[in-house]
Amino acid sequence: MHTTVGIIGGGPSGLLLARLLHKAGIDSVVLESRPRSYVEQRQRAGILEQATVDTLRSVGAGKRMDREGMVHRGIELRFDDRAHRIDFPSLTGGGSVMVYAQTEVVKDLIALQLAEGGPLLFNAQVHAVEGADTDRPTIRFTDGGREQSLTCDYVVGCDGFHGVARHALPEALRRTHERTYPYSWLGILADAAPAYEELIYAHSERGFALASMRSPTVSRLYLQVPNGTDPAEWPDARIWDELDARLDQPLVRGPITAKSVLPMRSSVTEPMRYGRVFLAGDAAHIVPPTGAKGLNLAAADVIVLAEAFAHRAATGSTQLLDAYSDTCLRRVWRAEHFSYFMTTTLHADPAQSTFDTRLQLSQLERITTSPHAAAELAENYIGLPLSPTRRSGGHGATARLRG
What we know:
8-stranded mixed beta sheet; single chain; globular; 13 helices; alpha+beta
């Protein structure tokens, strides 16, 4: 079996890339190790930047998102017994974000791929990527208990930090930069109508809290907890009481349908390309969820990559493919810094002093009193420009999709 682009991983980045390539007339095969039922149930991020929203619409995956998603034009910061709204449109020239769960994005993209795209194989366990530095890299995988091989012109690893694709980059060339944070998030889904219209980020002496949502009837809520916390240590009543205390408002309570602990870490692998193997999404970088950047960074990677593949198909030039790693890493490090800033400014480090707390409050005070500081936060939150080619009109897949 042979394809132009072999995609490892059927999450949002792999599926979106396959869809972009399909729209540009480039064939691909997607290999996903998990069953479809698992992929369509994974609970992940729910904030989409405008560029992500626009791209989903352009590939035909926007109908349900536009019907069920919720446009948010700001967030609220709570600290020191005060609340302050950051208004995105006034600070960014009209910008906003969309609340629409990654789970739903994946469902939409899977349906499109199966209906009219290239092959999408579930339960396809990839074992290795061979020949990354040749003109015919090969993906070795198991499908239905049989060993299979897929030769490709190019391979894109969208299979996460622990996936196979990262290891196609020689260890001597691969550099991974990491930070582990001294706290985690206890996250819940609850069948309860949100008692707030926009996301609330709360700095508290008791620890950080975030009030988010999945729909007008489902709340998504988070509490800062120590690393190693067992969700069983937190009965439902304790969770609701602590959320009320940290957010400084009573919430609408309802049945908690999911409960999990999410470790907080940052990671960047450089370069994001070796030979004919490219890394995208979590295979290349991980951010703490405080800045709502994980899914959006993954989407940005594959938008840039699809444009580069389309440019090569149209012109024969590999210029954009050769620039892929540098192009993406500039945006990745900006998003890493923003996520780090949001995380360290809003969370209480177990080892921090009163001096550290006062610095946090001073920074939050500046954001809420300085239009320049508020605009910096808002611009990063709604998403920075994807790439120089997009700003100048671009080539290939995304340019064609814009008409």
